[in-house]
Design a protein that fits this description.
Blueprint: H1 16-19, H2 24-84, H3 91-95, H4 98-106, E1 108-115, E2 120-124, H5 140-143, E3 146-151, H6 155-160, E4 169-175, H7 177-184, H8 187-192, E5 193-199, E6 204-207, E7 219-223, E8 231-237, H9 248-294, E9 298-303, E10 308-311, H10 313-319, H11 323-326, H12 341-352, E11 361-366, E12 372-383, E13 389-398, H13 400-456, H14 462-489, E14 497-499, H15 501-511, H16 513-518, E15 521-527, E16 534-536, H17 538-557, E17 563-572, E18 577-584, H18 594-598, H19 612-622, E19 626-631, E20 637-644
Parallel strand pairs: 15-17
Antiparallel strand pairs: 1-2, 1-4, 3-4, 5-6, 5-8, 7-8, 9-10, 9-13, 11-12, 12-13, 14-16, 17-18, 18-20, 19-20
Helix pairs in contact: 2-9, 13-14, 15-17, 17-19
Bound molecules: adenosine-5'-diphosphate.
Adenosine-5'-diphosphate binds next to α17 and α19.
């Protein structure tokens, strides 16, 4: 597992440009298709231009061929006219003239000889109706024929080439443009074009097709010139240049665009789901980061070399560094105590070897400001997604405050024990003084009696008298010493002030919580929080409660089973006293009276001293209270004491 990273955006942020990433392939494809379309359009225009060029060339070429043909026919007619000039040829002779027959074999439908006055002199062939004289147009036979006419002149006149020369008539040959076209049209032109001859009114004279020209067919028209005036030769290309958007590449491009659009849509879906997942991941990472930072527990991840790969903010704050200052560091760590580096290193090696105690271990670190930080460290293996160990993960508790409290508590206990010892010594001394007072007084009286007797006798031994006097003095001295010691040890006056018994009881239970736990005793507190305060020295009364609870624990513990203690505080004596009772389910006191139990040095415990209850009684009586014992409802003993309720300012 890699160290948890701060959230990073794989799309480099949520800019609109990145959000529309899915549409980029579609846009690029559109640009590409537009390029292809443009290229196809240019290709189409080139092809159309090429077709037009060849159309024009072919039209001009055909027109010149047809004109050449007509010119040749005109020349033939002119040769006939020359042959007829100045000759009186009969109509039959004309019809049999070789040039006439030759022309009729070619394209001429008929040939007429008209004299200078416009009268028909001869016509060939004889079965064909002659045209109306001087027809120049194409009206005959539904406009499907053409005419060639040449004047008949003598040779001299022709040489003079004068327009004013007298004419001897005219030869008019009727021909079929369709025949000319049919015979003279090259096959390759016929296969490429529809060819028409049209007049000025767009009426078709001759056409190689019966169909009409379509609007999208390229065509070109050239005038036929003098040989066929008022007629146009029109070529219409059969081949059409396909429109660019109807071509195969465009169909393929269309399909391509469709597929790209589909792919873009799918990409968009995918990106949205990735984006949603990323959003969820980012939220989760933010949550996790916030949780980690808000934890009271420090977290530390190390790789197999012991390098810190992650620390959370809590841990960094614990030792006064920033997380980035710690991440990447190898031991020795800056938060190790400089005087303790060797031990820290040993512990580190042990942890790296996987031998850190499972229940955690305590350690002492050093804050950046030099203060000591006590921590509890729990080490666990760090594994990646495949289950391979890649380092160590530790959770770290700051126990500095707990340690400080424990230390304070320990010192408090020591002080209390010291006080208890002092109190006990005082009580012992007091008891001794009380107990020794009588024998010493007796010694002094006896001594005085003996001394008086000796003095009353005759010739008393002065040395005996002196010794007895000294003895009396020493006895009195011993009595004074004992009294002084007692006075000294019990001289201190209790600090009587208002004090709340529930608080005193809570404090005592708190002090004894280890003994309670050790004896597996359950302590129930029945403390009325509304109780009035008592007038007492809280420290001394706390010692009494501690002693009673400790005795109850010992009694319960002696049964060899988990037991129960009930500590109650209530009003008694018509509200003038607060009575505190410590009851247990131990063996009880077997009818023992409070006087017997409180007798100095009375104990049933092997290591007991028998002064506890005696001291308790002295303290309670010092407060004008009463210590008592009775049978507990729980089955054991119930020790109780009463203290007077605090009545406002009163002197002790
Ligand atoms: P110590 O605890 O040193 O024995 P104490 O004066 O405190 O001295 O107690 C005197 C004796 O009173 C104890 O040895 C015990 O026999 C008896 N005693 C005190 N408290 C209890 C109790 N709760 N149940 C039974 N016996 C008790």
């Amino acid at each position: 597992m890699a160290a948890p990273q701060r959230p990073a955006h794989w799309l480099g942020g949520r800019s609109p440009l990145m959000k529309s990433l899915w549409a980029w392939p579609l846009v690029l494809s559109l640009v590409f298709v537009m390029g292809v379309a443009r290229w196809l359009h240019a290709e189409q225009e080139d092809a159309q231009e090429a077709l037009r060029q060849s159309l024009i060339t072919d039209a001009l070429s055909l027109e010149s061929q047809l004109n050449a043909r007509l010119e040749a026919e005109a020349n033939s007619l002119r040769a006939l006219a020359d042959a007829l000039a100045g000759q009186a040829m009969s109509a039959e002779g004309f019809q049999q003239h070789p040039l006439v027959l030759d022309g009729l074999r070619r394209f001429w439908i008929s040939v007429s000889w008209v004299d200078a006055q416009g009268r028909l002199r001869a016509h060939a062939p004889s079965d064909v109706v002659p045209p109306r004289a001087r027809v120049r147009g194409l009206e005959d036979e539904g406009g499907l024929t053409g005419h060639l006419s040449v004047p008949i002149q003598s040779a001299q006149a022709a040489e003079m080439a004068s327009r004013a020369a007298p004419s001897q008539g005219q030869l008019v040959a009727r021909y079929s443009p369709a025949s000319i076209l049919r015979q003279k049209l090259p096959w390759w032109l016929a296969s490429k074009y529809d060819i028409r001859l049209v007049d000025l009114d767009d009426d078709v004279i001759v056409s190689t097709t019966t169909g009409l020209r379509q609007p999208d067919q390229p065509w070109y028209r050239v005038p036929m010139g003098a040989s066929l005036p008022n007629a146009w030769l029109e070529l219409t290309a059969r081949q059409r240049v396909p429109l660019w958007w109807q071509s195969m590449p465009m169909a393929l491009m269309g399909g391509f665009l469709l597929l790209v659009a589909l792919a873009a849509l799918m990409l968009r879906q995918q990106m949205r789901s990735v984006s949603r997942a990323e959003e969820a991941w980012r939220t989760e990472a933010a949550w996790r980061s916030a949780m980690e930072d808000s934890l009271a527990v420090g977290i530390r991840a190390r790789d197999m070399d012991g390098r810190l790969i992650y620390v959370n903010k809590t841990l960094a704050d614990m030792v006064g560094y920033r997380p980035d200052e710690l991440e990447g560091l190898l031991p020795p760590m800056p938060y190790w105590v400089p005087d303790d580096l060797e031990d820290s290193m040993k512990r580190h090696r042990r942890n790296m070897a996987g031998q850190a105690p499972r229940e955690g271990y305590e350690s002492r670190w050093q804050h950046r400001d030099g203060s000591a930080v006590d921590v509890m460290v729990f080490e666990a293996p760090l594994v990646d997604a495949k289950g391979h160990q890649i380092g160590w993960m530790a959770s770290i508790l700051n126990i500095t405050e707990r340690k400080r409290l424990e230390e304070r508590e320990r010192k408090q206990m020591e002080t209390m024990a010291h006080h208890a010892r002092l109190t006990m010594i005082g009580e012992v001394a007091s008891t001794l003084a009380h107990e020794l007072n009588q024998p010493l007084s007796a010694i002094a009286s006896y001594n005085a009696g003996v001394l008086n007797s000796l003095k009353a006798s005759q010739a008393p031994e002065p040395r005996v008298l002196q010794a007895l006097e000294r003895m009396g003095e020493q006895a009195a001295h011993a009595g004074r010493i004992v009294r002084r010691i007692r006075e000294f040890l019990t001289r201190h006056e209790p600090q009587l002030e208002p004090c709340a018994m529930p608080e005193v009881v809570h404090s005592a239970v708190q002090l004894l919580r280890r003994d309670i736990a050790r004896h597996q005793v359950q302590v129930d507190l029945l403390l009325d929080p509304q109780l009035p305060e008592v007038r007492a020295d809280a420290v001394l009364v706390e010692q009494v409660v501690v002693n009673l609870i400790r005795n109850a624990c010992d009694a319960v513990g002696s049964m060899g089973r988990p037991g129960c203690i009930r500590v109650g505080a209530e009003l008694s004596g018509q509200g003038r006293f607060v009575k505190v009772t410590v009851a247990d389910d131990g063996p009880g006191v077997a009818g023992g009276t409070i006087d017997a139990l409180c007798a100095p040095f009375y104990t049933t415990k092997t290591e007991g001293m028998g002064m506890g209850l005696a001291i308790c009684r002295s303290i309670i009586e010092l407060h004008c209270g009463v210590l008592d014992v009775e049978c507990s409802v729980l089955g054991g003993a119930a020790f109780s004491f009463s203290l007077p309720v605090y009545q406002g300012d009163e002197t002790s």
